[in-house]
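Hey, resending since the last one bounced:
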Amino acid sequence: MNYRWKKGPPRTVFISGASSGIGRAMALELAREGVNIALFNRSGAPEVLEELRAAARDPAQRFVSLAADVAQPDSITQAVAQAVAQIGPPDLAINSAGVINALPFDQARAQDFDRVIDINLKGSRHFAAAVLMHMQAGSHLVLVASLAALTGNFAYTAYCASKFGVRGLAEALRYELRLKHMDLSLCCPGEIMTPMVEEEKRQQHPVSAALKAFAGSARLEDSVPALLRGIARREFEIIDSPRARLTAFLSRHTPRLSRAVGDAIARRAGRRMQARP
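The structure tokens again:
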């Protein structure tokens, strides 16, 4: 698939969290677009490098994978500088690293909350700081948040807090980047069936599952091209599917109705739980 890049296709893309899920799928799509790519993951991703080489449009494309933890500012800063030395500065940088915690509030520990904030919210800040010092006018920063940046869900206090924070970071940072002639996009996909989500579903609370079902689930092969089309157009807020967009619209424009619908779904799910033998 060829994307219609508003300001021309990127030459070099940096992606965090690309060992699986959204980051990996985006890297593969962009490899087919002919770009050079640097991957950043806590344990590296040598197997993804082989996939990128197989998907590459041009044998001259360059790919590197570096071990880095976005939750540690020195780690991601040093890795980004190393990648710049190897393949050049990015004109598109995508922070896709993230974790989920879906424990009810009274079951989650403080350290569980901290871990989600450190990776999802602080990690977004650390990645942005690391790449922006190398990016020039015309470049593009993308932060992958979630529909959970726009609406709440049962047992997602840490995750929603982190993603609402990413949205706030993006809204404020956008003004600064615009004055430097750079763009910022915020991806807010609904539930996508990534390995992380599939693992989460094995232990998901029934009320969480019922509320998420309202917004629906999507496949990576459908959602990632939709997100990349929005990135190519340099849209600010990008939502991947019609049902996710409806959920976001209700939450934003009719919050009382949105909460009433959510409460009704939660009550039904709760009654089904109590009725089980």
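The first helix runs from residue 21 to 32.

Sorry for the duplicate.
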